[in-house]
DNA sequence: GGATAACCGAGACGGTACGTCAAGTCTTACG
DNA sequence: CGTAAGACTTGACGTACCGTCTCGGTTATCC
């Protein structure tokens, strides 16, 4: 375990961490990931470069943490606004799978379009494509939990006979997450609520005549 | 006109271009896109840096051209091996859509797994996520032609009543290209022939009980 | 009174001070003055950085004190070994100036050659050349007392008629301290006992034919 | 010969070199050697840092070259002013050693007092004390040639019987260069023309009664 | 004998400069 | 004129220390 004597996190400056997150998110939006530099983050955050290097191994790691923090805050806010005590952690289950999926997918589209999320998420996704280590972290911490919600919802639908018994939920969910991701990241087509609806219908009933 | 007196492409050195392509593809495989530098390409190709800057605006542009060149060569070779006079430009049409799609998707999986293609394609895809200009070019020159083949094949199937009339082929094809791309780029799950087959089945017949 | 509430020296840790001296002297010998850092001294001495900054204003001040301490110890030791109660504070006065000077200069050469003294003394001398404040302190605390001994001895010789009456002792002594210092610091030539002897002879009798 | 493929000096930018010399000399005077940084030299010279690192291994090496250049210019100017075709390369030889030495030593004192020379020369001397490699270069390129002039002049005097035959000129000259250097570098006393004269007299005729 | 103020070790912090790398531009000499 | 070579300015990299600033934890008097 030849670690470089890891820093003592109890003495960490909370104010610096917040400032770094804010600076990173602001910069990735303003100049893009490629031109975002650690020096610029440090300068904008009013922080020494070393303070960044002490706690993160790379630019992408900073941005990942900043984005995770942003996501947490955002979902906490959302839940608070909805008057809930706890953070919402599931896809709605009205009993009607099609309706529920369309609802969630429309929300997903909205998020993908929101520049506040788009810029950092896109940057992280891109970096993850090429940097396996980051990709796995991105997957594990952000994507996987979301995907699991679909798995749960699909199982519930299966129990009610709304999804065929032989279907593997883990594969099925990719019928809509895959296309959405592709339109988002590769700009293969416009990202609209209508598209989301169509996707749900095609996925549920197939494209072959019934 | 403030154009920088564009270079005269008739006097361009073919040998240099080839060497640059080879160097770029080799380097992206060896050190990855992020650590691939123009200087290294020039050095490895035995070429002056200016020769690269004269003909391409950026690292990603070089790699895109190199990869396009590689793709052309590869498909030419493939066609030649198959004893054909021309390059294959269509998805097989045996009359059975399911079989044909499975065939093509398995081939796609094989390509995605082949490191010779994976490294540069992945790098370009990643860069395209974040660099809109490059992304559009990547889409237009590489993805779109492939997608169009699916559109054609789906229309043919529609005519034969194997795909419901109300289905939009342009959206339908994303039911499999999307998930495949997601597994490839985001490592959401393993990329296998079985997965490709399952995808085709789900897409064709839906996940709801028939 | 904008004094920073000077620290209370009665509560000062003797053990820390000693450890700092030892560390400073060891380091200047091992890595040289330029590469000796306050952090390294603190680490090697097992001391917090603040403990150094509390008591000294700069790296050179630490080293100066460390060296003064070393000198005191050394001359105390020397005197003890000679069975004296007090520290020797004068140049021997056998009545023969030439002999006495040669004796002292040979001892000086020996000290200049001893690496234990050479490393820190050289570092301090160098720093003093460029840092007037330190230079003056070095001069006042180390050089001047030594030089005064020569003045005293020369006056004694003058009284006995061994040195011409019109000679200014304060200048005369530089006839040998100057050359010795130059050979030591600027490596203008080898530092040997023979050289010391020659110097004394030339200084006493001049270089013109008598 | 594991050199890092030394740069091609024929393509070197003369303008950059000059600007670097000027900047280094100006800075050493303004902020002192310790606070003079390579970055500041580069900035002041309007030059990239790499251009400095390409041609010199260290701050001291830059300053040494700058000072050598300054010295050359200065002595060329001096000779030109005196209406000479060539650079003066000897100590005057009027036949009277005492006069000639006093003349030269007074000029030396003037130079040591001139801040334009003092700042860089002092810095180099200090660095040379602690950095043997630089010290040797300083000695070889600057000091030694000066000292050799004294050797020549002394030999001439010896032939004429003005210096005793048994005297070693190489040692004798240190009787005045040593003290001068010590007063200059260690501030052991004031540097004046009178001091220079006294030194010559003591050195020539000794301090013992004749 | 318990409070309390200082020093102490440790080390995080905002900074500056380091020496290196590569970007993109410019100049030189060759074919 | 395109080219190989490579010096140039610029700017970011990741590291090392600077000197300042908490943070607990010992001492070490002083009530």
Q: Based on helices, strands and strand pairing, what is the structural class of chain A? A: mainly alpha
- Could you give the count of β-strands of chain A? 0
Q: Give the ordered list of helices and strands of chain A.
A: HHHHHHHHHH
CATH class of the domain at 90-205 in chain A: Mainly Alpha
> Per CATH, what is the topology of the domain at 90-205 in chain A?
Tetracycline Repressor, domain 2
Question: Any idea what the radius of gyration of chain A is?
Answer: 20 Å
Oligomer: homotetramer
Helicity range of chain A = over 70%
CATH architectural category of the domain at 90-205 in chain A: Orthogonal Bundle
Strand percentage of chain A lies at under 5%
Characteristic terms for this protein:
10 helices, elongated, 210 residues, DNA-binding, Tetracycline Repressor, domain 2, homotetramer, mainly alpha
Structure explained in plain terms:
Four copies of one chain form a homotetramer. With 210 residues, chain A is mostly helical. Chain A has a domain of 116 residues: Orthogonal Bundle (Tetracycline Repressor, domain 2). Helix content of chain A is 70%, strand content 0%. Chain A has ten helices and no strands. The longest helix of chain A is centred in the last third of the chain and has 28 residues. Chain A is elongated. The termini of chain A are far apart. The model of chain A has no long low-confidence stretch (mean pLDDT 93). Chains in contact: A-B, C-D. The structure holds a DNA duplex (31 and 31 nucleotides).
